[in-house]
Amino acid sequence: MQILILIITVLLFSCDDGFNKYEVYGNALGTTYSVNYYAQQDQNIKPKFDSIFQVINLSLSTYITNSDISKLNSGIQAEVDNHFKNVFKAAKIIHQNTEGYFDPSTGIFVNAYGFGPERYNMEMSPKVIDSLMNFVGFNQFKLDGNHVKTDLDSFYLDFNAIAKGYAVDILSDFLKNNNLQHFFIEVGGEVVAHGQDLENNKIWNFGIETPDENNTSRQLSYAVSIENKALATSGNYRKFKIDSSSGQKYVHTINPKTGEAKKSDVLSASVVAENCMIADAYATAFIAMGFDKAQKTIDKYQISTLLIYVNSDNKVQTFISDDLEGIASPL
């Protein structure tokens, strides 16, 4: 889902003040991750990061059958851990702030359209969509201690649009708790940047990809400079599927109001926030909302956002919130 490309030099080097630059990378949460940090000696953080990813997976991954969320989706009244509760509570707030356009209960549609771990192999007719909508509505879920309660007979929660951002935040907290102050963490395009890029003596700089589903060169359209902030980008132009029988094109972001998987007029949404979990969720919601509703939400809650969208004349335009002027620059 994420479409962020890093403009970072990752060569190991030594600073005059004794700090070295280290790079760690690997696979986790169904995607890749990379970390650059400055320290006086190697912290050997990869095994610790892998342990954190494992714990988060066991809580929130729909691709692991014995995770907390998978147990809930299969009808088991399992206890959930603090990671699950943290994500659930944040999702509730963003669900409310976006008037329901951020809705983790649309997981049943993610599977129905063939984007999730379970593929229902259904013909997505209006009748089928109307039937599945009976199992959607995050407002019908609540936390009761360590349990999730709902009156829905069947459901499929999916926190993939917020869990990667949450994982980045947990990794960031781990580094700061270990006295590392200059780093960036990227998981599947979701980023937290802290301190500065000491090699170049400037704050971290990241690039926003030009939204073009036929663009195999992955060109960049904007650069964003952030310090002690998170950045998440969402778009629908790369991850899609075409039904073999009907030729219908489905994108992976579901409109929770209609159950449809149609292309939005917002091609790309990039959000800068205090933490990556919030940025991740809002970026997804703005794709589903479309430009007009997204702009109103951005203005109401003062969300730092860059939207690349198509206007009524079918021309690609850019909207940049006032607080990102000077931080986001065209390339």
TrEMBL record:
<keyword id="KW-0274">FAD</keyword>
<protein>
    <recommendedName>
        <fullName>FAD:protein FMN transferase</fullName>
        <ecNumber>2.7.1.180</ecNumber>
    </recommendedName>
</protein>
<keyword id="KW-0460">Magnesium</keyword>
<keyword id="KW-0808">Transferase</keyword>
<dbReference type="InterPro" id="IPR003374">
    <property type="entry name" value="ApbE-like_sf"/>
</dbReference>
<feature type="binding site">
    <location>
        <position position="284"/>
    </location>
    <ligand>
        <name>Mg(2+)</name>
    </ligand>
</feature>
<dbReference type="InterPro" id="IPR024932">
    <property type="entry name" value="ApbE"/>
</dbReference>
<keyword id="KW-0285">Flavoprotein</keyword>
<dbReference type="GO" id="GO:0046872">
    <property type="term" value="F:metal ion binding"/>
</dbReference>
<dbReference type="GO" id="GO:0016740">
    <property type="term" value="F:transferase activity"/>
</dbReference>
<comment type="similarity">
    <text>Belongs to the ApbE family.</text>
</comment>
<dbReference type="Pfam" id="PF02424">
    <property type="entry name" value="ApbE"/>
</dbReference>
<feature type="binding site">
    <location>
        <position position="161"/>
    </location>
    <ligand>
        <name>Mg(2+)</name>
    </ligand>
</feature>
<feature type="binding site">
    <location>
        <position position="280"/>
    </location>
    <ligand>
        <name>Mg(2+)</name>
    </ligand>
</feature>
<keyword id="KW-0479">Metal-binding</keyword>
